[in-house]
Structures are given as structure tokens and as C-alpha cells.
Amino acid sequence: MNLVAIDIGNTNISVGLFLKGAEQSIKTAGGAETDKVAANIREAWEKIPVSKHSKEGKQDGVVIASSVKPVWTEMVRKIVEEELQTKLLIIGENIPFPIDMAIENSIKVGTDRIVAAAAAYSVVGDAVVVLQVGTAVTIDLVDENGVFKGGVIAPGFEASSQALKDSTAQLPKIQIHKPAEVYGKN
Predict the structure, then answer these.
(1) Catalytic residue numbers, as ranges
(2) What is the spatial distance between Cα 37 and Cα 33, in angstroms, rounded to a whole number?
(3) For 23-60, how does the pLDDT look when each residue is reduced to its tens digit (9 = 90+)?
(4) Strand 12-19 versus strand 88-90 pairing type
(5) pTM of the model
(6) Choice between 175 and 102, residue whose per-residue pLDDT is larger
(7) 87 and 77 Cβ atoms separated by less than 8 Å
(8) Which residues pair with 132 in a beta bridge?
(9) Helix (H) or strand (E) holding 16
(10) pLDDT exceeds cutoff 80 at 20
């Protein structure tokens, strides 16, 4: 299958191109960089081959998004529909969740968490804990039967750093980077 996969996060929008199921490229832009996001989507779509059966010269692929930010979803939908002349398929909206859910309100769980949990289970084939670090830190559990059991959300490193600076008397705002050692000494 040929597809343009779009991950709409809280901070960035990543666009992946998959031809015949194989990853070709992934490009990321800040969600507020509308022109760059549109260029990444167009560039990926233009690499999708034209369908052999299309008399109109339509691409043989789909555009699918996973989103946690509705305002950016609408921006991306507009780009896809107006510039690519195709429909944006959205996980949880017109594409069912790729994993069974054992939680109270599955529509309230970010699709990024659900997709990552399904992918982790498909690789491991057994119970798995999934950690994602971004604007937020999420830790989710999939049981041995491939059922999403739920998880937790905590502030990401940048948000935590800012909160510590704002809420303490002596802690400065620090730049987040890979530490030289496992624990701090300064």
C-alpha cells in the first residue's frame, strides 16, 4: 500500500511517505509552520505513483492522519482536500482504532497513544509498556491479548522544566539535553 502518514502532535507535524509498505521518508515541521507542513505533504504525495487503472491520473495511495490537535487537523484536512484533491482519512474518525480498547472513553485517548500501542504490540506480540516522550510523557499498557488497558500522562521535559522554574525559589530554567551520566551531579 502507498500512503502518506501524518502525525499531528501538540508541537510538531510529521509527514511520512510509505511506498508499497516501505518507509521512504519522514519530515517534521512545527505545526505553526503552515507553508512547510503543506510543502512536506505535497512532496510526499507527488512521490505516490499514479494508479494504473485511473483514467484521471489519480495517485494510487491514501493520506492518513493521527491527530491530538483538532485545529491543526482542520488545517491539514484543508491542505489535503484543496491541494491534493483527495480525502484525509483520520484514525478514530473514519478509520477504526487499530487495537481493542478496555477503557471508559476511548475517544478521549490521543490517537498517538493508541497507534503507538498497536504498533508496539504488533512488534512484541505480547504484553508491552509503551513510553512516548514529547510535549507530554505518556506511559501506556497493552495486555498479552493485544488490548489497550490505559495509561498515564505527565508533563514533558520542557513543561516540567518550566514548571520547576516558575514554582520554586532557586531552580533555574534549564536546557534539556542528553546528560553525560545517568544522574545529575550539579
Answers:
(1) 112
(2) 6
(3) 999 999 998 899 999 999 999 999 999 988 878 878 89
(4) unpaired
(5) 0.82
(6) 102
(7) no
(8) 138
(9) strand 12-19
(10) yes
